[in-house]
Amino acid sequence: MSRFISRRFDSLKEYVPGEQPQDKKYVKLNTNESPYPPAPGVIERINDAEVRNLKLYSDPECRRLREMLAVQYGVEIGNVFVSNGSDESLSFAFMAFCDADCGAIFPDISYGFYKVYANLYGIRYTAVPLLEDFSIRPSDYYNAGATVVIANPNAPTGIALTIAEIEEIVKRNPDNVVVIDEAYVDFGAESAVALTKKYDNLLVVQTFSKSRSMAGARLGFAIGCEALIADLNKIKFSTNPYNVNRLTCAAGEATLAAQDYYNDNCRKIIETRAWTAEKLANLGFSMTDSKANFLFAKHESMDGEALYLALKARGILVRHFSADRISPYLRITVGSPEEMQALIDALTEILQNGGTV
Ligand code: PMP
Fold first, then answer.
1. Is 331 helix (H, G, I), strand (E, B) or coil?
2. Assigned CATH topology for domain 15-37+260-352
3. Residue 49 CB: number of other CB atoms within 10 A?
4. What are 128's strand-pairing partners?
5. Could you tell which of 113, 180, 211 is best to mutate to test the pocket of ligand 1, judged by most ligand atoms within 8 Å of the CB?
6. Cβ pair 250, 318 in contact under 8 A
7. Domain boundaries, given as residue ranges, for the chain
8. What is the pLDDT confidence band of residue 357, given thresholds at 50, 70 and 90?
């Protein structure tokens, strides 16, 4: 740490993203990207003319993109906020809806960035332990007296709450904002977007990074009542008005025009998830019931880190977390059928060799 960093941030522990190795080609199953490329229309849209237009600033309102999102989700343009990845929507939500009087509450095992944002902005937070089976008990979040942040499905467990459970949490916190992070919702959970029409304290955050094959373009969005969106805009226009760049905006529009293609990809990923879960179970793994594009699996005979290292030595990257309760587990992104076959082959060999790297 330099001697110049402000005292406020001196002890801040930053978020550590999954590895993005640039040295060799791995079967990359560690950061929940889509195995499928963007739709042909997206690739065509990022053409010469779009690149030439980079000399101009982007539309700070991202009107066209927000209009298309509003149509797709059955809301008005004033209910839609777009951001540089959904991380930015989440970051702005922590900034906008928490302060010295109003802390945050989220599960102890969830997206690691929630804790980092809370620490970055000096927000008190409560990390509520998940139940023994890694599920969330909705009543733990009733009358929270704090901004509630829940990933649904949760990460890295993949377990989803029902829409009725989400609604009850929203209802039981009328004076606080409830943020539902739906990064993985398209792979089998129910979205709470429709509830935003009924509850003015609900903000739903989604991303183009997973089901829409655009992790590298950085595009996310939030849907909520106009007042919540205005609050996010206040933060955005005080931080970075051009938060979504021109190429990403164009790519986002072309993505929304190709929804059938992405629905089809989600269907394929859900099928591949079921296939992989069955093969993993046959190898002796146990798993949570994941509704996301990853599986969360452990093996009785080998610990998570040893498995992670043995897979990495065979050119397959998965994610391992060292936190206490989840250290036996691997989070494995559901890739293409070929990638999952490679994973199963490698695991079969590793387990036969008694885990030697
Ligand atoms: N929420 C959850 C639960 C995630 O796992 C991720 C991916 N790291 C994000 C949000 C952020 O994704 P992005 O910024 O790429 O939209």
1. strand
2. Aspartate Aminotransferase, domain 1 (3.90.1150)
3. 9
4. 107
5. 113
6. no
7. 15-37+260-352, 40-257
8. low
pLDDT over threshold 70, residue 348: yes
Residue matched to tokens 């982007």: 58
Check whether the bond before 156 is cis (ω within 30° of 0).
yes
Q: Could you tell me the two tokens for 84? A: 């540089």
pLDDT number for residue 146? 98
Ligand 1 centroid distance, CA of 151 (Å): 10
4-8, 59-63, 160-164: which has the minimum mean pLDDT? 4-8
Tell me the CATH class for 40-257: alpha beta
Residue 194 has pLDDT above 80, yes or no: yes
CA distance linking residue 329 with residue 307, whole number of Å: 9
Give residue 77 CA to ligand 1 midpoint distance, Å. 23
CA torsion 141-145-147-152 (nearest 10°) is 10
- pTM check: above 0.90: yes
Residue type, 313: A
Q: How far is the CA of 31 from the centre of ligand 1 (A)?
A: 9
Q: Ligand 1 — pocket residues by CB below 6 A?
A: 85-87, 111, 151, 155, 181, 183, 207, 209, 215, 220
Cα 242 to chain center, whole Å?
Answer: 22
- In this predicted structure, the answer to whether residue 23 has a pLDDT above a threshold of 90 is no
Q: Which atom of ligand 1 is nearest to the CA of 208?
A: 16
